[in-house]
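Readers outside the structure-tokenisation community will struggle with the description of the input data as it stands. I therefore recommend that a typical entry be quoted early in the introduction. An entry of this sort, consisting of the sequence and the corresponding backbone structure tokens, reads as follows:
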Amino acid sequence: MPVATYCLVAVDCPDPAALAGFYAALLGGEIKQDGEDWYDLYVPGGHRIAFQRAEGHQPPQWPRADDSQQLHLDFHVTDMAAAESQALSLGAMPLDLDDQDGQRGFRVYADPAGHPFCLCRA
């Protein structure tokens, strides 16, 4: 029997309002502010992502896993080209776009605070 239930993913960043806005534009949903340093994004489907101010935040170095704090988010998309265009227009940065002509099924980006995320073919 589990001793805990999933609540949210909290993402450290230098500007939680801006990063919550980026993900709201990418995923949809509603942003709720809980103090100056914490924003929650309630995305369609009932999931929640929180954004917490972290002074001195340094983005992870993809794909290193040494001293670089590492997490990444995966998002299913039905149209990779359209999703990529939208993500880039919102401020995402490409990290690894070589999906081997569609065989690999995902592409890697960084959000405006430098956190990696993947767009994955649904």
Q: What stands out?
A: The helical segments are 16-27, 80-89. The two ends are 31 Å apart (CA to CA). The chain has a mean pLDDT of 91. Strands lie at 9-13, 30-33, 38-42, 48-53, 73-77, 93-96, 106-110, 116-121.
